[in-house]
Design goal:
The chain is of the alpha+beta class. It contains eleven helices and seven strands. The radius of gyration is 21 Å and the shape is globular.
Length: about 400
Amino acid sequence: MSTARTALETEEHQALRAAVAALGKRYGREYMTTVIREGKHTDELWAEAAKLGYLGVNLPEEYGGGGGGMAELSIVLEELGAAGSPLLMMIVSPAICGTVIARFGTEEQKRAWLPGLADGSLTMAFGITEPDAGSNSHRITTTARRDGDDWVLTGRKVFVSGVDIADATLIVGRTEDARSGKLKPCLFIVPREAPGFGRNQIDMELHAPEKQFELVLDDVRLPADALVGDEDAGLLQLFAGLNPERIMTAAFGIGMGRFALGRAVEYARTRQVWKDPIGAHQAIAHPLATAHIDLELSRLMMQKAARLYDEGDDIGAGEAANMAKYAAGEACVKAVDQAVHTLGGNGLTREYGLASLITASRVARIAPVSREMILNYVSHQSLGLPKSY
């Protein structure tokens, strides 16, 4: 662990980082590639991380969690990623869904879901993106209408991770405001086996244990208590989940970049073509040093975002979380690219485990929001420039 990192973190955070790194090392990249190759899921790592209290470290203690926040959960995902075995569903289940339910759910919803999300026995997916909406959440067409005491949901979602292994999906729909007639966002817990709730796996070039799905909601009837929180506070609740999503995506990217960089540095230290190791040449050393700097800077912004969020500053956290996600995505892609380039032909072999990251690293740039939309956000919200869309 670098001096700069330890100086900024509490002893508890340092201990958590070291413990999770040790867990990740026991599994590593080989475990992840084997799981992917055999078409399985990361059940063993998920269960052990849960047993050790890492999955629910951000959830309230009274519901079985660790009582921490995004600062702690992001450490867990980053260190697992740095070991080559990140758990993508951590972004979705405890970070987005767990946070939304903990902050806005009813007492019954908290008791029903939070202990299971914390101990790993329950998993929840998150559905917001639609085929014709993309990054424009104001164009979401999945609607929820009242029918007696029930809600009836109709619509489609795409690129929803892990629906096949999730017990339920937190769906972002829109309801009609009785006063204005305008549609407003609301969040609903939809059980996996709910009648009318169909899913189709999307054929992806991305190799990961977590599969991507298109969802079809064909008059899915839900009880009144499927609505999370206040019907009139949907936008606030939605962004309460999106900021943790961006923080955790940054952790995902930083961890992946650190793994790739570590492999490249080890190779550059030992690979000898002429009289010195290739890492002695500045053309190899300097790009790796730059990648390291970019990853460290990304972590600083991620830590800032996590701290602001954990302190209840949603507005400040929104800006920092977007910046952290942007920076981490760029740093991740560049670190992976430089790592593959450092290894040359070996960087494209299965043995070194880097080639698959060329595609995977793009996720940190594209999802859950593109870098261009973040630049729109920063130019408009941070700099006060006219809105372009």
